[in-house]
Every structure is written in structure tokens, then in C-alpha cells.
């Protein structure tokens, strides 16, 4: 397995900030319109792009990962017609934001050697943070009387955790290579 690193410099954080906002918008749009596999028709789709917040967090920094997850959730819920102010802005937004924040705190491309072990650790972190997110979001949905708790845990777990477990470790090395080629001088993570 190759080990890739991404150089960092002390420059501006404008690039990762802007890219995290663009990634958040793309995440929301992809979650709303590019999830063809229905787990519960019309209600829960298999979010094949659930890996975007953790991937953005690892590549661009923990704040960027949080922005991607939080704003992506808001964009998705508005586009999908599922926006519930207390749930979307507080529980769902924050918990999905944490799926980008935690991996971004734990893995820095400038200091992490992305070998087989690191990829397994990324998958383990995605599993743990995914379980926490799904539990909190399911509790919120149950509290609001929208879905029964265990029903939500099952389907949201399949919807979000599986793509994070597969997509994040699979795409981190190619994404680092792309960023390193585009920014050979590096950039400051945000």
C-alpha cells in the first residue's frame, strides 16, 4: 500500500474554507438527487455519498469536515423537503457535522502515513462516529414521533455508515494525490 502525504504551508485557509462550502453544497445536492437505492421508498435512501464529510475533514481539516457535514445536511433537508428546524439545525446537522470533524481531527495528511493500518483506523473511526450519529439522529426522530428508534437506527445505519466505511478509506489516497498535484506547495488546513 502506498503512503501519501499532503504538504502544508502557513498560507491562507481560504482554499479549504471555500472548498468545504462547495463540498457542502455538492453533498446536499448529491444526497437529495443522486441516491437511487431506496431503503424505505420515499423516506430513506442509501446515501452513497455519505463518505464526503469524513473525506473532506481528513483532507481539508476538521472545521472543513464539520462545515461539509452540517451545511450538507441543511442543503439536503431543504431540497428533499424534510427540513425540521429543531432536528435539522441542531441534532441532525451537528451529528452529521461530527462525521467530518472527528476524522479530520484524527488524521492529518501532512503527518499521517496512509498505509493499510491507517485506512483500517479510518474505517474504525467512521464506524464509531457513524454509530454515535445514527443513535442521536434516531433518538431525535423517535422523540419527534417521526420514526421508531430501532427502525431508524437500522435504516439510517445502512444508509450512512456503510458508505462511510467503504468510501472514506477507499478514496482518501486518490484524493490526496489529486490535491497534492493541484497544490504542490501545500495549503493550510481549516
UniProtKB/TrEMBL annotation:
Record bears the keyword Phosphoprotein: no
Keyword vocabulary terms for this entry: Membrane, Transmembrane, Transmembrane helix
Coiled coil: none
Residue stretches spanning the membrane: 12-33, 39-60, 67-84, 90-110, 122-149, 161-180
Protein name: Substrate-specific component PdxU2 of predicted pyridoxin-related protein ECF transporter
Organism whose genome encodes this protein: Salipiger mucosus DSM 16094
Amino acid at each position: 500500500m502506498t503512503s501519501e502525504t499532503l504538504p502544508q504551508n502557513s498560507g491562507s485557509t481560504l482554499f479549504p474554507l471555500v472548498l468545504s462550502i462547495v463540498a457542502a453544497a455538492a453533498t446536499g445536492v448529491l444526497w437529495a438527487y443522486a441516491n437511487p437505492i431506496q431503503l424505505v421508498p420515499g423516506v430513506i435512501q442509501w446515501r452513497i455519498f455519505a463518505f464526503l464529510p469524513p473525506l473532506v475533514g481528513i483532507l481539508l481539516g476538521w472545521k472543513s469536515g464539520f462545515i461539509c457535514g452540517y451545511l450538507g445536511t441543511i442543503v439536503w433537508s431543504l431540497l428533499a423537503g424534510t427540513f425540521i428546524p429543531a432536528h435539522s439545525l441542531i441534532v441532525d446537522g451537528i451529528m452529521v457535522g461530527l462525521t467530518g470533524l472527528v476524522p479530520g481531527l484524527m488524521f492529518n495528511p501532512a503527518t499521517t502515513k496512509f498505509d493499510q493500518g491507517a485506512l483500517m483506523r479510518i474505517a474504525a473511526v467512521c464506524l464509531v462516529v457513524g454509530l454515535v450519529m445514527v443513535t442521536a439522529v434516531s433518538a431525535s426522530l423517535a422523540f419527534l414521533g417521526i420514526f421508531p428508534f430501532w427502525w431508524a437506527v437500522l435504516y439510517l445505519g445502512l444508509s450512512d455508515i456503510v458508505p462511510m466505511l467503504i468510501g472514506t478509506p477507499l478514496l482518501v489516497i486518490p484524493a490526496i494525490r489529486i490535491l497534492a498535484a493541484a497544490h504542490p506547495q501545500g495549503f493550510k488546513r481549516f
